[in-house]
What does this fold into?
Amino acid sequence: MKTIYVVGSTNQDIVCIMDKFPSSGETLHGNDLKYFQGGKGANQAIAASNMDGNVNFISMIGNDAFGKELKKYFDKIGLNNKLYISKTRPTGTAIINVNKEGNNNIVIISGANAELTINLLDINPKKGDILLIQNELSVDMVELLLSYGKKNDMITIFNCAPAISIENFIDKIDYLIVNEHELSIALNLSNFNKDNIEDIKSTMSVFNKKNNLNMI
It folds into this structure.
């Protein structure tokens, strides 16, 4: 059975429920406050584990209340994880505001996620194992991870969110996960109509063939 190595972010999500978003300088009453486990890396690991994948999750949290509760949560659901503890930074946090129409805006504080380095990747992958990452790490870390994956004959899967250009390391990605907005940024497309499904299909087909890339 292939091992899925998920390397990425762990965040504490703090969700503020409100009727409308405040304007600059405005103070409003909110309706509710909720706390959820978050981070795109953790979400990937949990989703893969729920589908009976053999998952190893590697991340970094802070030595704070959020980090301790998240560790308990991962242990409770039986996720095979290696959580490093930062001595200097708090657990990553996402502040999510949601209005009554269901629209949201999000502020992410990387915290301990920013201290996760390639030197902490203490794994022994086999050929064909899967490396699943996302872009809530530094760009340098993303590129190093993808290079590591290809060097070790792993299948590399990159969720390009938040979106960045992948021009410098597109050859190291086997599967690219993007939405229409992320697609235009990832491939540096200046004249791309993200609202035209045929334009999206055509663009994906061209880049798939040119770069031996699979887009999802």
